[in-house]
Amino acid sequence: MPGDIACYRCGASLAALSLPLSRQDECPACENFLHVCRMCVYFDPRVPRQCREDGAEEVIEKERPNFCDWFKPSEQAFDSRRAQQEDKARLALKALFGEGEAAEPVMDDALRKAQDLFK
């Protein structure tokens, strides 16, 4: 594979895959589909339709596999800041539901008093 193409979601190397990527190709590490808008050189969240290719049909779901004939994998698709934000949000969600490291949710005083009524 020319250059160093990595998964847009997890950053894993895709050197073992051959071009062109098929619609059903998945990342070997995170198993996300790769023939998606976010993985394309024409993807740009700052432009209308989030695509710099005028001839491409609009794709609504940017992380779902599509049939776009203009698709070309980007070497800059992986965004480490976005991955860090997703990891932070995932940890916060786990803490909210009492999973992971923060198993004991922090209770405010009013909630504690309400629970004490039913003991």
User: How would you classify the helix and strand content by structural class?
Assistant: mainly alpha
Poorly predicted segments = none
Rg from Cα:
20 Å
Task: Kindly state the percentage of residues in helix.
Answer: 10-25%
Q: Count the DSSP helices.
A: 2
Q: What is the end-to-end distance?
A: 64 Å
Number of strands: 0
The description of the largest β-sheet is:
none
Strand percentage: under 5%
Shape from CA axes?
elongated
Query: What's the helix-strand series?
Result: HH
What does this entry look like structurally?
Helix content is 21%, strand content 0%. It is mainly alpha-helical and 119 residues long. The mean pLDDT is 86.
Give keywords.
single chain; about 120 residues; elongated; mainly alpha; about 20% helix
Please describe the topology of this protein.
Layout: H1 80-96, H2 109-116
Task: Give a quick rundown of the structure.
The protein has 119 residues and is an all-alpha fold. The protein has helices at residues 80-96, 109-116.
